[in-house]
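retry 2 of 3: previous attempt timed out while embedding manganese (II) ion. Reduced batch size to 1 and resubmitted. Inputs unchanged:
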Amino acid sequence: MNLHEYQSKQLLSDYNIPTPNGYVISSLELVKKYIAEFENSAVIKAQVHTGGRGKAGGVKMVTSEIEAYNFAENLLGKNLVTHQTGSKGIKVNQILIEEASKIEREIYLSIIIDNTVSSPVIITSIEGGMDIEDVSKLMPEKIKTTICSPLLGISNYKIRQICKDLEIPENLKNEFSQIVLSLYKLFIKNDCTLIEINPLVITKDEKIIALDAKINIDDDAVFRHPSLKKLEDKSQMSPLEALTNKYDLSYVKLEKGKVGCMVNGAGLAMATMDLTKWAGAEPANFLDIGGSANEEKIIAAFKIIIEDKDVEIILVNLFAGIARADVVATGIVKASKETSSKIPLVVVMRGTNSEEGLSILNNSNLDIISASDLEHAAIILKEKISGGK
Ligand code: GDP
Ligand code: MN
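retry 2 succeeded.
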């Protein structure tokens, strides 16, 4: 789950990490009041779930009431397109007005989970302010990684090394170290998967401030944090994300392939993709319908798969346990009729009510081939793919 910048900054504040004074607003009425409060020197920032807002015209330093008002008017209610959003962009429902800071230096600081070392890692760069992806391309030596121990946290000597890497001045080392420790605590306590502060700045009057903040919470742990769950902003999701979220489906789009894969369970998804490749094809995506499934969920799942224009054939691989095969079959038939889909299906169904499921599919007059097992499905897939060439 993604938090907005203003929500992330509130969380940072709760852990005593300094952020600029600011207000989040969703209408223009209060712009003048806050600009006056900041003595006509403020930054206005679109609150949208994407990075790269600065370059895309979603962040601006303003120095007068009229400039502030005009910029806010041009942002609110409009879609902001950045290099991360796709051409439609994301709607700006809120903006943040902050007191402007006088920047001396910009630093990059983030914490993520690195699966290859099964630990949280702190990533820093002395080149803050620019996209970390660009830094890693242009000057990879400027990015430093510090592995933390999931049991012990960050040792003092590692923090000292970070201070050295970032050339933190002597008089700010204590404060900076405290910020890193607090950030780590925040990361662990809130089940974060990412905290990124870019830039963390040292101001001309020698203060350290988190000027930007991006926090993601682990979706599988967010139930442990009801107050964070409340911060979820569904307006920022794409229609596809909203649909997968609503029906608790796991959908992954893959590059190049033509086979849409509908499965139940992550292990089965892996096996299904192996099978697809073994048959000489590439999966276009996979959609895991999870353990339990009703008709409505299957209809949504089917629609999501055919929404992907790369899909030329659908492979359904179902090991029916709690999810009953007849329910899944009924859902597939309904969705296929509703959408007038012409995409052929290869179906393997075993487990609970699989015979009923297969007979529903076979009697549906749809372009459905039922396979007796995975190997059989692979053979059919092979024929279909080579036959279509
Ligand atoms: P992003 O582009 O979405 O990452 O948005 P940021 O919040 O990081 O803002 C982009 C850039 O605007 C920052 O890297 C800063 O260089 C600049 N910026 C943001 N706030 C201030 C501020 O208060 N003072 C100054 N001088 N620059 C700012
Ligand atoms: Mn930023």
